[in-house]
Design brief:
This protein is mostly helical. The chain is 38% helix and 0% strand. The protein contains 3 helices and no strands. The chain is flat and about 55 Å long.
């Protein structure tokens, strides 16, 4: 699964995004690429009983902790909640 689009991980797809995906789909030996949803992806993964996937219990966002919001009040609340 791969996310694409403009903005902070969720903006709409650009014409360039769509063009490059369609171009990749035509390349010899390219993987099967289809437009879908996270719900469908995870449903299909859960149905694959022969997969032996590791359980990740740690943070997956190592490089930019707290970057999912630009709202100063939320960031301030997050910092406050980290203090004893």
């Amino acid at each position: 699964m791969a996310y694409y689009g403009a903005g902070d991980h969720g903006g709409g797809a650009t014409k360039e995004n769509i063009r490059s995906i369609e171009e990749l789909k035509t390349e010899k030996g390219s993987p099967v690429i289809l437009y879908s949803t996270p719900d469908r992806y995870f449903k299909e993964i859960r149905e694959m009983k022969n997969l032996n996937l590791p359980a990740v219990k740690d943070d997956l966002q190592h490089h930019a902790v707290g970057c999912y919001t630009a709202e100063s009040e939320i960031k301030k609340g997050n910092r406050s909640s980290e203090q004893p």
